[in-house]
Structure formats: C-alpha cells, structure tokens
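On clarity, I found the account of how folds are encoded harder to follow than it need be. An entry of this sort, consisting of the sequence and the corresponding backbone structure tokens, reads as follows:
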Amino acid sequence: MNREWRAGLARDHQLVRNETRRVLVSAWRLALLFAVANGFCPGDALGTYLGAFAVGGLLGVLLERMRAARLLSATLGLLVFFLFQWISRGGLSALHLFVLLPVGAISAHLGTAREE
C-alpha cells in the first residue's frame, strides 16, 4: 500500500514537472519569435529586444495556460506584437506591416503544436 502511494506521488511530481517544462518551452518559443521579429522592425535597440523578449515570454505563458488554439494564438500574438511595436516605437512604419503577418502565422503554428 505504501509503495503504491509513493508511486502515485512520484507520478504526480512527474506530471507537474512536465507541465512546467511545457509552459517554459512555449514561453521561450514565443519570446524568441518576438525578439527575432523585433530585429526586422526599424528603430530597434537593446531595450526593445529585451522588451520584446519579455512581452513574448509573458504571452507564451498566458497562451499555454489558456491552452490557446491556432486562431486565438495567432490573434493574440499579432495584436500583442502590434501594440508592443506601436508603443515602443511611438508609431509604425510600412515595414512593420510586412513583419506583423509572419508573426501572426508563426504564432498560429505554435498554437497548432499546443492543440496536439
């Protein structure tokens, strides 16, 4: 009986570790996407890279906790990146439009992985 109880506890700890790892990996991927996409936008600086990485990481954690699917992931990824660029740059240029669409598409792809 004690052995079965300990095996159950070990399984519970393993599930928690797997969930934590999944959330961190998701946050890392979206943070990296935001930081790389930030590099293609005009007016970038070290502060905007760090800010994009932080905002992307927080959004990745939020989307993972919500178990967001493709559409929600794409929509929120696009919206949050748009708002971050707009606020951090004081406005947008035409080049931002060419960067926004790939960010939304890759966010949707990351949401597809979350659906599985």
Summary: Helices lie at 2-39, 46-66, 70-89, 94-115. The chain has one domain: 2-115. The chain has four helices and no strands. The chain has a mean pLDDT of 87.
